[in-house]
């Protein structure tokens, strides 16, 4: 397991992770050689001057633990007031959302990040990467934060998911989320979704089309297209 963690987080010095944890965070950032630090270790070390030592030691041990459940607890803890306002917190979450080896940890990081990150562009970059994660759990976690803002970048990520995701459950949720995006690109993609082989996807595509247009032509693509071509700007 130590080898796996070192591989994933790119630790250069063998055994550094365990030495770092067992030291109880007694060494400050200046005492840790830069070449020995993974991105997460380096960022977490920056918490030292900003928080009580005991709390920093705990969050470091959680986020760098070989136990995925403990790392997930650490990720959730980053949403607490002690850490949420720190500049370094979103950066830690962005790394863990993409690089952590456990899908539940990655999903938790996406969820927490989407609630605390004020940098929309940086958040969208993470969500774009996470939207193609090998785990459906992680991809599902991307949908709600993408539905909260009517912007072209978020829209395009959702459209890619509707067109390409292999999970019908995710495509269904994406079709529902697209009702918040009022554009021709969206309605034509939803129009194609009416013929999805999974009923949940076609049903939610229809429901979103109804929401966006105020019309209902059932699953008749021809009738929908005729109305959209004439009336939807």
Question: What are the salient characteristics of this protein?
Answer:
233 residues; disordered N terminus
Architecture overview:
α4 (53-63) packs across α5 (68-77). The radius of gyration is 22 Å and the shape is elongated. It has a domain at 174-233. The protein has helices at residues 2-9, 16-22, 39-45, 53-63, 68-77, 81-84, 88-99, 103-116, 120-130, 136-147, 152-164, 168-177, 184-193, 199-213, 221-231. The protein is an all-alpha fold. It contains 15 helices and no strands.
Low-pLDDT runs: 1-37
User: Which strand-content bin applies to the residues?
Assistant: under 5%
Which descriptor suits the 3D outline?
elongated
SS summary, helix count: 15
Helix content: 55-70%
Quick check: average pLDDT? Answer: 81
The largest sheet is: none
Q: Tell how many strands the DSSP assignment holds.
A: 0
Supply the helix-strand structural class: mainly alpha
Give the helices and strands as they follow along the chain: HHHHHHHHHHHHHHH
What is the rounded Rg? 22 Å
